[in-house]
Design brief:
The complex is a heterodimer of chains A (about 110) and B (about 120). In chain A, strand 7 and strand 8 form a beta hairpin. Chain A is mainly β. Chain A has no helices and 11 strands. Chain A is globular. In chain B, strand 7 and strand 8 form a beta hairpin. Chain B is globular and about 40 Å long. Chains A and B meet through strand 4 and strand 5 of A and strand 5, strand 9 and strand 10 of B.
């Protein structure tokens, strides 16, 4: 069984400050891990993904995440927050294999304060 | 490419009414999914279709039925709508690959459904 825990349903940061969104996962097999972003009234779009190639993954809009197997974590970071980063962020996990069943976290709403 | 499209964007139903949510993708993906999104609960899988001709229940299938009409289209039907089905519904598609090659799900814009 696989699961995802996102710590903090709401996170507020000042514009220009570090963004850190936390995600811990549970999986019985080596996982695929994803971060998706959802802007208001839109669908989800992929920010970045981990598929075992490199533990530090870079995504769009300056975001990156580091896979830490010992901590079962995949935290999302961005060095300097921009107003346009305000959105909801979802961490997701999938086990390996041909069919992709993905389990999503409950989401973290990021507020960026001017 | 339009990606994943969903119709309608908004819908209001009375309790007991039925409706079908439509989804289509133009990326030639084999797998398609229906999720519902509720505040504080993230996305929950309703049904999925691993490939054309197959459908399976997800985490919350009760009250829903699906049809994989062809490789492009995957519809979700509410036979007798209930207020508990008020939600935002997302369709997604992906192309599963064996091994460690990467893949991800592509999402439609969603359908906001209110059942009164």
């Amino acid at each position: 069984a696989q699961s995802v825990t996102q710590l903090g349903s709401h996170v507020s940061v000042s514009e220009g400050a570090l963004v850190l969104l936390r995600c811990n996962y549970s999986s019985s097999v080596p996982p695929y891990l994803f971060w998706y972003v959802q802007y208001p009234n839109q669908g989800l779009q992929l920010l970045l993904k981990y598929t075992s190639a490199a533990t530090l993954v870079k995504g769009i809009n300056g975001f990156e995440a580091e896979f830490k197997k010992s901590e079962t974590s995949f935290h999302l970071t961005k060095p300097s927050a921009h107003m346009s980063d305000a959105a909801e962020y979802f961490c997701a996990v999938s086990d390996s294999g041909g069919y992709q069943k993905v389990t999503f976290g409950i989401g973290t709403k990021l507020q960026v304060i001017p | 490419n339009a990606g994943v499209t969903q119709t309608p964007k908004f819908q209001v139903l009375k309790t007991g009414q039925s409706m079908t949510l439509q989804c289509a993708q133009d990326m030639n993906h084999n797998s398609m999914y229906w999720y519902r999104q509720d505040p504080g609960m993230g996305l929950r899988l309703i049904y999925y279709s691993a490939s054309e001709g197959t459908t399976d229940k997800g985490e919350v299938p009760n009250g829903y039925n699906v049809s994989r009409l062809n490789k492009r289209e995957f519809s979700l039907r509410l036979e007798s709508a209930a207020p508990s089905q008020t939600s935002v519904y997302f369709c997604a598609s992906s192309e599963p690959r064996l091994g460690r090659s990467s893949y991800e799900q592509y999402f439609g814009p969603g359908t906001r459904l209110t059942v009164t």
